[in-house]
Design brief:
This protein is 42% helix and 12% strand. It is built from 11 helices and 9 strands. α1 runs parallel beside α3. It has 279 residues and is of the alpha/beta class.
Amino acid sequence: MPAHAMQQTSLKQKLTDRFVSAEIQGLLARVPKPLGSFGYDPWGYNEDAIKLGVPPVRWLYEHYFRVVAHGLENIPAQGRVLIVPNHSGQLPMDGLLIGYSMLTNPHGPRAGRAMIERFFPTVPWLGNWLNAIGGVIGDPVNCGRMLEREEAVVVFPEGIRGSGKLYRDRYQLQRFGNGFMHLALQHNAPIVPVGVVGCEETMPSLFNISPLARLLGVPYVPIAPPLPLPARVILNFGEPMRFECPVQSEDEVLARVDMVKKAIGGLIRKGLKERKKVF
């Protein structure tokens, strides 16, 4: 092994020994995740990166956003599944919190594979890190292959329409893409809808500087707090929804997409009723 690779391995081991508890080691050992001999899967997922990422995300989950998650028993402990939430908050904090709740699910931990926007891998370091903790470019080929490997894939059908919307549009579901439903039908994967409440308030955007966004080549540049605010977050996981093939037309696909959208809307309303304080 080259000297620089040995140094990286040694540093990673020291960080793991220092910050990763036996509890986390045991938790990750229960995750049904096939990895290669070097500890990676074909999309860059790496167990060591997950181990080092858990302690700071746990602090965010438990102490900063004080997340309450309901319905975790609805996530299958094994096998292919699409986790489909609403999207909000400018930064993908919702994906991070959903991923942590899945990883620590007492009914069966899963490694959530979140579909991310194509511009993220263009950001130095960030793209590699997102791949290492389970993020993958939101591409139907990637998603289909993961489902065939019995993965739990997190898809946000609103895309940047949801994450980049202004605060005045909070909790208003944006247009859903149809791709996730085609994948569910083609790969016979159940859909678990998720209603996320609280991430809208973590980074409220008052205005999008569209010309600057186009200049920088990013989806949006919001006028928003520089860091996420400590809003309380509630996650409601709904019961799995199953849709059978074949469908005869795209209208039938759209009808099934609307069923999922209505389910998510109901879970959002449930979360809003449960919430006693925003912060």
